[in-house]
Amino acid sequence: MDKKLYKMMDWPEIEALVYGEEDRPHELLGGHFVKDGILIQAFFPNVKKVSALVQIGRSINEYDMELMDEAGFYAVLIRRDKKQRFNYCFRVTREDDNTEEIYDPYSFSPVISQKDIESFENGINYRIYRILGAHVREIDGIKGTSFAVWAPNALRVSVVGSFNGWDGRVHQMRRLGDSGIFELFIPGIKDGDEYKYELRLKGRSIKVKKDPYAFEDKKGPEGASVVYESSFEFGDDAWLKERSGSDSLKGEAAPAGKKKKGEKTTVSGRPLSIYEMDLNTFFLSDDSERSYRELADQAADYVKEMGYTHVELMPVMEHSEGADAYEVSSLYAPESAFGRPDELKYLIDRFHREGIGVILDWIGGYFTADSEGLSEFDGTCLYGHLDMRQRYNGKRGTLNYNYARPQVADYLMGNALYWLEEFHADGLKLDSLDEMIYLDYYKGPGEWLPNRHGGKENLDAIDFIKKLNSVHAALKDGTVIIADGLKTWGKVTAPQKEDGLGFDYKLDKGFTGDFIEFLSLDPFFRTHHYGELIYSLSYYTSERFILPFSRRDVELEEGISSLLLKMPGGMPNKFANLRAAFGFLMTHPGKSLSFMGQDMGAESVWDGKTPLDASLLKTEENQKFNHYIKDLMHFYREHPALFDRDYEEDGFEWVNNTAANDNVIAFLRRSENEELLVILNFANILFSDYRIGVPKEGKYKEIFNSDAVKYGGGGNINPRVKTSKKEKCDGRDNSIKIKAAPLSVTIFTCG
């Protein structure tokens, strides 16, 4: 052994490296100028031989490296009289005598700037996913992957994978100052390679964790994070251009409820009818493999044919094996069971090409307690809370995010923007807002910690939500963020300058609860619950509402059963009730959301495992009901009166909201150039000559009737144009007589 080389060794640091306790390995490893020339040091356990191929000027020479420590620490001193720029790589001979040339990870400077670090520490690095995680890139003509992770309380962090035998000593990462960020560029690591982080914690314990910012993930404890480099090219430019020019789907010149009666909007409202679907259980043809590509082709065709404007995908993020889809384990990684991330992009792109928007369910209220996930990531409650009264979600047993920590807020903010920008999603539905905002959610006395004012609101979560909505609004790209929850919270969609939360839409769960309760009653008993039917029309301008027939809001309301089976009576009456229900949903001011299977009259309850039975459409009753939903959705899109002024007082007007004994309601829907008269009969009685007041003298033509034979009804329609008469009714000078079929919706043009 070269004695001079031996004396140059920093043995304490070498020992730290060999024992996996080094957090600044670049100061030891790699090539460094020293007094006598160039000192190159490397760590290669379990190899036969290592040499350094060094280029100085035009000259390339190979130098055998000495084994300085039997654990695999090698070094060589290249004697030079003066400093000259040099490049090098290693030639490594393995135990099986195979030889490969390896570029040194410790010869590269950090790729993360001080500006990026400071903005992350201040919680304003909104696209932090571009910095942290695994990114394939080329540095100085050498392609590899840069890894970066935030783990401030770890003593050491390493990248491990099959490329280094899962040995945490080989690729120990550099700590960047006091930021808590560790980073390392490893040449040769490419798309599809699996990796994890090995962390040495205080007390000398070791944990192996998946990457919080992994863009691809393999499920289960044996799975790993996956390096992902996208090669997908979207073809939805026309869709994005149209979307961004629409002032978002709200399409309003003034906030909801702030527009004066008679004042015109400068931007027309747009139709929004959402089809909520689960990729794991949406129906496919029998011989189809369940994948993003197959789902894209079959689901896009079906949704387009049915006439929905958007789909809402239940969580597409990777979730724990065997767990509920809403218990997401890797927030940045799409569900791997259906394919790679580029294939999910294909699915979204395919929907866009068919003129269908895509909204994603987004989980920002909690994270799982999986040992390889965010839980105690660096040995501390890094992403969550230390106090047990704040740590756990009272309903699920999952863990709550600590929104007060700037880096955690950036993690979540970056994720929301990631799905919108990198996957071209048209919106996010923020799931379980009640769990985010209420500190006492599903908790008893003494199990939760009040805020600084003594209240039950999570002030940090509210601040995060406002910040998210503010950053999102600045995008001006036509995407939307929908609030799911906060049933009794006011000003959810009001601007923040008016003390609102700034959401684009809010699900009106109050509407769903009241309406399902009303529908579940036998028509004979509905008279005394008439107020529940009409109540939602007393506050429709207070928020920008979406009326949800979503899975959780319907199946769990009034007992666990499908929407069809909640209807009273035998099957013919159940379907008639359901046709009337959807008629009210689509003519009521506001946008709509319904769950897959409802459009077919499915009887089974969604269990997250059993695929939707497409054979339902082979039976006559279900086929006719499906035909009804299809025609209703297309009818909605073709008539601006049903969507143009959803949140304005002059977009809706009561005709009759006092016929409790008849269980009939009638109202007008208006746009600038259209006026429709809507009559709903929720009694199981045929009214052959029902007089309805009309807004003006003229002819009234029936253009839609749910009781048509083709929909499974009794054929009690109004085939002839109705001419109004000067007979007062419903407080109006003119009226018409119509046939109001049992359990039906009837729509007329006015004048």
Account of the protein in words:
The chain is of the alpha+beta class. It folds into 4 domains: 3-104, Immunoglobulin-like, CATH 2.60.40; 114-226, Immunoglobulin-like (Sandwich); 271-369 and 402-642, TIM Barrel, CATH 3.20.20; 649-749, Golgi alpha-mannosidase II (Immunoglobulin-like). The chain contains 16 helices and 36 strands. The strands form 9 sheets. An 8-stranded parallel beta barrel has the order 17-18-21-24-25-26-27-28. A hairpin with a 2-residue loop joins β9 (133-139) and β10 (142-150). The longest helix has 19 residues, at 620-638. The relative contact order is 0.07. Residues 252-268 have low confidence and may be disordered.
Q: Write out the strand line-up for the largest beta sheet, numbering strands in chain order.
A: 17-18-21-24-25-26-27-28
* CATH homologous superfamily caption of the largest domain: Glycosidases
Mean pLDDT: 93
CATH class of the largest domain: Alpha Beta
The general outline is elongated
How many structural domains? 4
Largest beta-sheet characterization: 8 strands, parallel, barrel
Low-confidence stretches: 252-268
Helix content: 10-25%
**How many β-strand runs?**
36
CATH topology of the largest domain: TIM Barrel
| Assigned CATH architecture of the largest domain | Alpha-Beta Barrel
N- to C-terminal distance: 103 Å
Portion in beta strands = 25-35%
| Distinct helical segment count | 16
Task: Tell me the structural class.
Answer: alpha+beta
Radius of gyration: 32 Å
